[in-house]
Every structure is written in structure tokens, then in C-alpha cells.
Amino acid sequence: MIEIHNIHKSFGGKxxxxxxxxxxxxxxxxxxxxxxxxxxxxxxxxxxGLIKPDIGSVTFDGTYYTNxxxxxxxxxxxxxxxxxxxxxxxxxxxxxxxxxxxxxxLTNMSKSExxxxxxxxxxxxxxxxxNHKMPSEISGGMKKRVGIARAIAPNCTYLFCDEPxxxxxPQTAITIDELIKEITEEYNITTIIVTHDMNxxxxxxxxxxxxYKGKKLWEGNNVxxxxxxxKELNDxxxxxxxxxxxxxxxxxxxxxxDRVEEERKGETR
Amino acid sequence: MLxxxxxxxxxxxxxxxxxxAPKIIFNRTIDEAILIGINSILIVAIVSTFIGAVTCVQISxxxxxxxxxxxxxxxxxxxxxxxxxxxxxxxxxxxGKVGSNIAGGLGTMKITEQVDALEVMGIxxxxxxxxxxxxxxxxxxxxxxxxxxxxxxxxxxxxxxLSGEITPQEYISGIRGDFVPYNILFALxxxxxxxxxxxxxxxxxxxxxxxxALEVGEASTKAVTNSVIAVLxxxxxxxxxxx
Lengths: 269, 243
Fold this sequence. Notes:
The complex is a heterodimer of chains A (269) and B (243). Chain A has 269 residues and is an alpha/beta fold.
């Protein structure tokens, strides 16, 4: 369980987080939801420790983290797995080496033990035959899978995902969402996901925290979110639906145009 | 500028604050040394050979007094090579090649969150990524400078002989005369200092990159210009202190 208390963060006088508190439960996919620029990623980085909050504290399973001694922070960090927005795979290493890297750095496993674990993690995310591919040779969805495999390789207790669906087609996005949810439940870890995608909310939102202008405006699950009477949240949901519908119409139109074109070509022949 | 210098010093301090295991740093240092060394041999060889050749021809052109023996040309090529051309010119060339490479590589890692990925794993990214680069540069630069010394003096020999300005016997006599072994030590000390400056300044510029591709390009440019300035200032200071 991760607890955050009264997190404040400003950049150059601009307040990005304004007293955000909350609890992220173990074995559940906790979502940080909000429009772009509401401070979701900053909050995630404050929790992970990549950014130091101006005020406030973060606790991992009862252990104070934010300003604790370096060795205690290091100890907690070694239990953290993170999937970055752009996957952040190491360019100079192939898929196998990327997944092996945290095991090499953080554990005393032998080479054969490491390779067993790497192969297990890669098969867990559905990438059995990609060991020797370089990051530049694989698709965005595959990169996300490798990122997840790398995050879970050292048996992480806490999994953080920064917009895991960004840049993916809807089908792959759902697959990645489901994979994260399965892994969370299977290993009983605490997962926090930053997203602005309502599909993710409906699919995997065990617990959702809605941020608006740096403040927590609402908290609940994927059923309760549909009955909320908070105007900002409803606007956000409506905008998402509108986007989705617009995209659907656009896709249907494109399909229709393709069909007409095919027919025309057939007649010409 | 002063604030930037302070940040640079803090960055250097952070490399040693919580270092990674010596074995990991050692392995990475060897990898980096191979990269810096092997990839730089050709450019160092070309530049130093031609600089030696040009130095020989130009000294010969200026040395018109019949009372000065022709072997002086060999002597002057050797002295100029050992004291200045081999360590400084090689370092300036490497500032362009190695410096921009370090800054560009680290800058790209920074903007694609690869540095953050290391930090999240509890790894001191500065120590893991930068320390081996600095150690490798400090290890490899003196070797490249020694190579440059041989090739530069050799370039002078070939140019002198081919142009007929000086006979091979005169040239060899010149480069053997009044030899001061300390000059080689001085050149090697300079190369170590320059290696540290170039690799650390370039790493600092790359490591503090924020933004996108444009900023990575800016970081590479700043790495080269700042390194070259630092090398020239250090060259003067070392000459004052050690000669």
C-alpha cells in the first residue's frame, strides 16, 4: 500500500500539485486520471522519488520514503518497477539485455538464473521470440511489453505506469491494460497508472483518483465514476466520449471510402 | 556562469556520492575505453601526421639563416610536438569527436527517460553512466597523445625527406639532440587534465539536457565549445605551473 499525504509541488512559481493526499491499495490497479497538464505525471514522479515534493510525504507499506535516509530510499527503489511513457528501453541493449539489466544490477543471480527469469518475464508479456531484437526494431506495443517485462523482472512490489497506452492503437492499448491488471492481481503488487484514457478507466480502474488543476477532485472506482455529479469530471468523461465517437465515425467513414474505392477499381477492371 | 560552474562541481561530486560496484564500473570503463580509443585512432593519426609534416615544411621555409644547422628543423618539430601539438591539438580534435558523442548520447538518454529508468531502479545514473566515461578518457587520451607524438614526428620526417628540405640524417640528428625527458611527462600530465575536462564537461552538458532533439544538439555544441575553451585555459595554466 502506498500513502501520499498533502503533496505540494511548484515549478518556477507555478503550482502544479496542491495538497494531494490519498491511498493506493495493494493488488489493485490505481489510476491517476486527468486531462493533460493537471499534474498526474508530476505526482507519479513525486511518489517514485524522481521529483522531490516541496511539501508532503510518501509512505510505502508504512515506511516513510520522501526525505528518509538514502539507504532506506534505495531499498524501496529496488522494489519499484516503472513503465515509462516512451518505454525508456536502453537503446544500446537488445530486448533480452534490457530485461536482464535490473537483475544484473540489483540481484546476485547467476547468469543461468537471470536468463530463466528473463525468458519467463518475456513469455509472460507474450514476447517469446524477441530476445535478440533491438529496441529500434520493435513496434511501440512491443516496447511497452518489454518495458513491463523489465519492470517486473526483479519481482517488484510496486509498479508505476506513465500513460502506458499513449501512442498505441485501441486494440493494443486494451491488451497492455489487461496485461498490467493481470500482473497486478497475479503478483499482488501495488500498481499506479497515469492515464487520461476513459477506456482504461472502464477496463481496469479498481481505484481512480481524478486530478484537476493540481488538486484531487474525486476518488472512486470504475462503476462510481459514471454516476458522479462533479462537473469537471463529467466534462472530462464527455470530452473523452466525444473523442471516441468522433474517432469511430472517422474510422467508419474511412472504411466506407476504402470499400467504394475497391468497388470502383473492380468495375474498371 | 558562476552558478553553472557550481552546478558542474556538484555534478562531479555526485559521481562519487553513491557509486556502483567497482566491478560494474571497471567493466563499463573498459567498454568505454575501447569505444573512445578505437574510434579515435584514425582521426588522431591523420591530424597528427599532417601537423608534423606541415610544421617541418614551415620551419624549413622560415629557417633561411645559413649559420643555423638544418638539424634544428628536426629539433623544433620534436619540441613543438611534445610540448604543444600532440597533447593540445589531439585534445581539441577529441573534444570535437568524443565530447559531442558523449553529450549527444547522454542527452538522448536523458530526454528519452532512460536516465530516469536507471534512477527508479535505485542506480546512481551519474555514477553508472558518467564515471566510466571520464575514467576511460583519462586512461585512453595519454595513449592517443603518445601515438600522436610518434606520428607527428614521423610526418615531419617524411615531409622533410620528400620535399628535400632536410636529409633523413639531419632530421634524426635534430630530434635526438638536447632531449629533455620531462617534456614527455609534461605532455602526458596535460593529456590527463584535458581528458578529464573534456569528458566531464561534455557529460555535464549531456546530463543536464532537458527538452527534445533541439536541446540535444545544443548540448553537443556547448560541450565542444566549452571543452575547447577549458582545454586552452588549462593549457596556459599548466604551462605556467609546470614549465
